[in-house]
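Researcher: Structure prediction, please.
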Amino acid sequence: MRKNDRYVLRFLLLILIVGSISAGCKANKDIAKDGGKENEISMDVGGKDYDIVTRSENISNLVVDLYGIDNTSSIIFNDMVVIAVEMSRDLTLTDDMRETIINIVLENDSGIRQVLITDNKKTFNQVETIIQGLMNGESYDDYVKEINRIIEKLKKE
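Model: Predicted structure follows.
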């Protein structure tokens, strides 16, 4: 490597370092301006609530990977989980698909004993709202009545 090439390389490296530091400082200022709200989700969800949200999210991720399912939202209540799915266009939630979902959930979460599944859009939105509330630091206890109502409704179906 020639002497001039080394100087150019050092200069470019210096610019890269200074640019990285500058970008990092700007990001910290932006977070400080909005009160660090980006980190509130993980910081506000604590203990038991964090475990429930994490397990619910893991279940949703398993289910949404199945063929024919576009979106999934789930919430755990004791040893049961409510799973709301949005099916792909022109597909319906069949008994075989329900059985597949139940098997996947039971195989991957040993704390779950009962799986309730729906493709009702209103229920999907309710479950999604609960999860968002929990992620924003609201207490799980605030949603117990609503979760119970969803469960009772699904048990009657």
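Model: The first helix runs from residue 3 to 33.
Researcher: Thanks, that helps.
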